[in-house]
Amino acid sequence: MYVSDEFCEFRARSFYVEGQKICEVVLLFFKLEKMGWISLSIGEGLAIFSHGLQDTEYQLSEGVDEEFAYPVRVVGCLLKYVGKKISRIYEYRMEGVDEGCVGVYFDCERDGFSVLEDDGCLKFSDGICSLGDDVSLVIIDR
Questions:
Q1: 27: Cβ–Cβ under 8 A, 6 or more apart, which residues?
Q2: Which of 39, 71, 81, 91 qualifies as a FRET site for 106, CA 20 to 30 Å off?
Q3: What confidence tens digit (pLDDT) does each residue in 11-23 have?
Q4: Average pLDDT score over residue span 74-101
Q5: Global pTM?
Q6: 138 closest CA partner among 47, 50, 28, 37
Q7: Distance between CA atoms of 13 and 29, rounded to whole angstroms?
C-alpha cells in the first residue's frame, strides 16, 4: 500500500505540560503522493500506521499555552526524503518477543531513515541503526 509511493511532507506532534517540552515527537505524520496523510506511532512493542486522517490531526500549530499541548511542526531532519519513493518498510524487532517492535526503517532505494521508539518518544536517524544482537530488521507488508 505504501511501497512505491513517494514522500511529500513530514510533520510531528510534540507533547508539552505547562509550557515544558516532555517529548519532541510522540507521533509522526507523513504525506504520500498517492495515499495522502499517514500517522505512525510506536509504543508497547507495536508500530501503528493510520490513514484517512482528519485535517485537524496534522494541521500545523505552534501554541504551547495550554496546560497540556500537542503542537504539530514540520520535521526538518527528514526534508531530504521528500520526493523519495519507499521501496520497502521494515520493523526493528526484538527476537523472541511477540510484540517486540522498537522502530521502523523506511528503505528509499539507495538510502533511508529509521524511526525509533525511545522512552515513549520517537527519534529519527539516517540509515539503518545497530540496536544489538537481539534486534533484527523484519520486512512488513505495507
A1: 12, 13, 39, 40, 41, 122
A2: 71
A3: 999 999 998 999 9
A4: 95
A5: 0.93
A6: 47
A7: 8
